[in-house]
Amino acid sequence: MKNITFLVTMTTFLAILSTTAASWGSWQPIKNLNDEHIKEIAGFAVQAYDEQASGRRPPLKLLKVESGQFEGVAGGKDYLLTLTAVVPREGSRVNLYETIVYENVSNQKKLLSFKKLL
Ligand SMILES: *[C@@H]1O[C@H](CO)[C@@H](O)[C@H](O)[C@H]1NC(C)=O
């Protein structure tokens, strides 16, 4: 009886462990792109990218998050988002960008990359 209890406990433990581990080191799709938290991360990415330019070009205007993935990393998560944004000075042209934002467990964000796709 004791062995069965142990086995059940271990199986449950391993099941929980594998669920947690699933988001570690591999990108998982973000199902709800309209989630406020995802919008917040996209907004942060555009803002941080604009801050890097420090006035050398007009700020981008975030249009929409087109797709997204996340990955569990040490101390938080990495978010890989593809988004569209308007470039005001270039005749309101819409560009596609890919960005990676790290967010730690205290919701502190850091822009890791931001590049134009087309
Ligand atoms: C999250 O990042 C901020 C800013 O870098 C840092 O001050 C804070 O300690 C971090 N929190 C954790 C739990 O790592």
From TrEMBL:
Top-level taxonomic group: Eukaryota
Keywords: Protease inhibitor, Signal, Thiol protease inhibitor
Pfam families, per the entry: SQAPI
Ranges where the Cystatin domain occurs: 30-117
Keyword Isomerase part of the UniProt annotation: no
Gene3D superfamilies per UniProt: 3.10.450.10
Signal peptide: 1-22
Molecular function GO labels: cysteine-type endopeptidase inhibitor activity
InterPro entries the UniProt entry points to: Cystatin_dom, Cystatin_sf
SUPFAM superfamilies the record matches: Cystatin/monellin
Record PANTHER family: CYSTEINE PROTEINASE INHIBITOR 5
Name this protein carries in UniProt: Cystatin domain-containing protein
Source taxonomy: Eukaryota, Viridiplantae, Streptophyta, Embryophyta, Tracheophyta
